[in-house]
Specification:
Number of strands: 12
Structural class: alpha+beta
Radius of gyration: 30 Å
Shape: globular
Number of helices: 12
Helix content: 40-55%
Number of domains: 2
Strand content: 15-25%
Length: 365
Amino acid sequence: MVREKTRGRRSISVPTVTIRAKRGDVMPWILRLIARFALGLAVVLASAWSSLALWYRLPVPEGLRVAIALLFLLLGVVTIATSFSRYQLAALSAFTTAVWWSTISPLDRADWAPDVARPVTGSVEGHRLTLTNVRDFAWHDGQEATERWVTQSYDLDKLRTLDPFMSYWAGPEMAHVILSFGFEGDEYLAWSIEVRRTRGGEFSPIADLFKSNPLILVAADERDVVRVRSNLRGEDVQLYRLKASPEAARRLLLEYVSDANELVVQPQFYNSLTTNCTTMAVKMMQAVGASIPFDWRLIVNGYLPDYAYARGALDTRVSLPALKARAHIDARARQAGGSPRFSQLIRVDVPSLRDMASANSRELE
């Protein structure tokens, strides 16, 4: 396009340029920007994960572990800061770390902490379940106990109830879950999915994301596994009574036994997110046919009672706040102490539809 400007008598032609941005020119640039950002984010996450994995699991002295982990993190930063082609180096490094990571296997022999030293195993003959290495410790404080491991038999035809304990150790959001199976005659068998620590080791939710410790199933007397938490470790322990049929409880108990036997043959790592006390219990329930739709409360497991109540798995004759208020067992547990009737005494005033049905049956008789 040419515009004419007049200066006096002379006419001057001035060319003008019109710039129009075509959509076809802009879109590839936006897509490249999105791809670059996504790849950069992937490098950040991969570098952070790899650095933590090296820090927790590399079998070298601590000082060298720190140096290698920081070096790997620095590699990620440099990769992002330099040209696009450097992503190939990051990809190769991440792949190498992933290959190394896949070779790490859980220990099956070590100097284990006393309370997780012996794995439980079981066998079934007819309606009799026999368990070896049932834990029956007499705890003196939160860490020290007189050790006692027993072989115990249970009549599966007398299995009646299934009760979850919620032991809150880090505020209302997170709890340790223990499932207890009740038999006629007020006999209870509690199962706890725990970290198998070495002697002197501690539980770390962060470290256990990185293949730090194996997983172990503990079968125990409630005076052991519940009382140590309510009376000696100062945890807020709550007890609920599930509306589970004896048949469903039996299937779940046998699934616990099967998994315990399998862990002896093929150890498995504990993972704070994917393989913990809640996710393992959910997987076993699903394995025996229970319908458990995914819900955020299965991850933030301190709210499992809310989830169970909403699903109609608890006694809904009372409101959820009232049910929670009556679920706290700490005062009753301290009063019961080491009494042989510990399990009966902590269940006083905890609502149960099955207890109500049994009482009505006795009245009719």
